[in-house]
Amino acid sequence: MRILIADDHELFNELITNVVLAHGLASDVVSCRNFDDAYQIVGTHKLGEDRKFDLVILDMRMPGMKGCSGLRRMLGIAGTTPVAIISGMLSPAEAREVMREGAAGFLPKTMPLDELKAAVKGLLAGERYLPTYLMVKKDADVVQARHAAAPPGD
Predict the structure, then answer these.
(1) CA-CA distance, 9 to 100, in Å (whole number)?
(2) 47: β partners
(3) Residue pLDDT, tens place only, 35-59
(4) H or E stretch including 2?
(5) Fewest CB within a 10 Å sphere: which of 13, 30, 100, 128?
(6) Long-range Cβ contact pairs of 134-139 (< 8 A, separation 24 or more)
(7) pTM of this prediction?
(8) What are the start-end ranges of the H helices in the chain?
């Protein structure tokens, strides 16, 4: 298994790499520090070659990423490779938005290491990952959506 990690913070690149390799989740991890390098690495392959990576993890806020448009660009060249977003600053609404846009998962930088390990393992197995608290959180976007869907007179 091969994983690409694109995060402009060297600490997170090394942390995720160490967790993945120490727990045998992948045999190779490639890291880069901006979206343009990640895009080039994922998009460079020979005709007929199997996909280069089994998972791509992108920092939502790094040089060149440009939010969901960066995610959409990566999904456009990643083929069947799952693309997960990692961030320390996304609101619950933004995290759910990246999932609606096609991300295989959202990994908050505040998650415990054991949860990170389980999330990466699941993503590599073809599962989607979103922290439970984001699935049930009653925040402004959920309340607003309920009001918008309510029939007149309620």
Answers:
(1) 26
(2) none
(3) 999 999 998 765 556 668 999 999 9
(4) strand 2-6
(5) 100
(6) 134/92, 134/95, 134/96, 134/106, 137/92, 139/91, 139/92, 139/93
(7) 0.83
(8) 10-22, 35-43, 67-78, 92-100, 113-124, 132-136, 140-149
